[in-house]
Amino acid sequence: MDIPKELASPGREERSRSLLDLIELRTLDIDLAAWLVSQVSRGASYVTGAGPGGIGKTTMMRALLGFSPGRLPYHVALPGKVSASAKAPRCVISHELSSHPPSSYLWGQDLRDFFALSKRGNMLVGNMHTDDLEETRSQICEENNIPKKSFRALNILAFIRIEGVALGGGRIKDSTSRRYLNEVYYSDGTADHESVYTHDRGLSARATGNVEHEMQCYAFLEEALDRPERAIGEVRRQFLEWEKKM
Q1: What is the C-alpha to C-alpha distance for residues 20 and 225, in angstroms, rounded to an integer?
Q2: What DSSP letter does each residue of 218-233 carry, written as one string?
Q3: Over the chain, what is the mean pLDDT?
Q4: Helices and strands (H and E) in the chain: how many
Q5: What is the DSSP letter of 148?
Q6: Pairing relationship of beta strands 74-76 and 167-168 according to DSSP bridges
Q7: Is residue 74 scored above 70 in pLDDT?
Q8: Is the dihedral of CA 157, 160, 166, 171 positive or negative?
Q9: In angstroms, rounded to a whole number, what is the distance separating the alpha carbons of residues 217 and 219?
Q10: pLDDT tens by residue, 4-20
Q11: Cα separation, 18 vs 20, whole angstroms
């Protein structure tokens, strides 16, 4: 299943960056990438966050989409049509969880409907203008009246930062400065989110999972980095071929 065209080819970039690109750009290292792939490839729901625009939250969201399970078709959730995603388990994607324009973003009842999909076997994916766990939880739970137990359906919350660049009009203008994953939180769906990675300390012992599968994901990424292909669609194709052998 190919990544939806509007996500794989957003138009403002010559080519959307894949996870392999982001590893080479040092946005994240291969150890963290392997852990994230091991979770996403088994259907973990996730949201990427960054306060200002232009830091790379959408880029990271797209890059990880390439590793969602092949059994889950992609579906882009749009306002007023979110419940249409409930026909069968899917990877349901929101362009953004936000009260701001454009009209394709989810908020209010649409966002509540989005979270309700997690109870039906759907994988949820999105991004937000938030810098940390508390800000994310406040916007989702307090501003949108979504129960904390539903908030835990987001297994992974990943927050991105950029090295010492001033804002211009609320967006990052310097595209050459390094973006990096600053902190990652995890919930198994029942417990509150815990920090499992920080940029300073790396992956913690709480970043539990299937160690064998994580090692397999590491090996896949290592081999993929030795190949010349970097386009999101090609990385997705390689992953689906690899997934069939697992």
Answers
A1: 6
A2: HHHHHHHHTSS---HH
A3: 90
A4: 9, 10
A5: H
A6: unpaired
A7: yes
A8: negative
A9: 5
A10: 776 766 555 557 899 99
A11: 5
186 sits in which H/E element: strand 179-186
pLDDT tens, residue by residue, 178-233? 899 999 999 999 999 999 999 999 999 888 888 999 999 999 999 999 999 999 99
pTM greater than the 0.70 cutoff: yes
- φ/ψ bin of 241: left (φ > 0), alpha (ψ from -120 to 50), beta (otherwise): alpha
Question: Average pLDDT in the 14-43 region?
Answer: 94
How many other C-beta atoms lie within 10 A of the C-beta of residue 187? 19
Residue 190 C-beta-side C-alpha neighbours within 13 Å? 0
Distance from C-alpha of 151 to C-alpha of 131, rounded to nearest angstrom: 17
**pLDDT of 44 above 80:** yes
Of 63, 59, 64, the C-alpha closest to 155 is 64
What sign does the CA torsion over 137, 59, 78, 74 have? negative
The Cα–Cα gap between 93 and 62 comes to 10
Q: How far apart are CA 96 and CA 238, in angstroms?
A: 27
The DSSP output letter for 97 is B
pLDDT per residue as tens digits for the range 201-211: 999 988 888 89
Nearest CA-CA partner of 207 in 22, 56, 60, 34: 34
Please report, as a single letter, which amino acid is at residue 170.
G
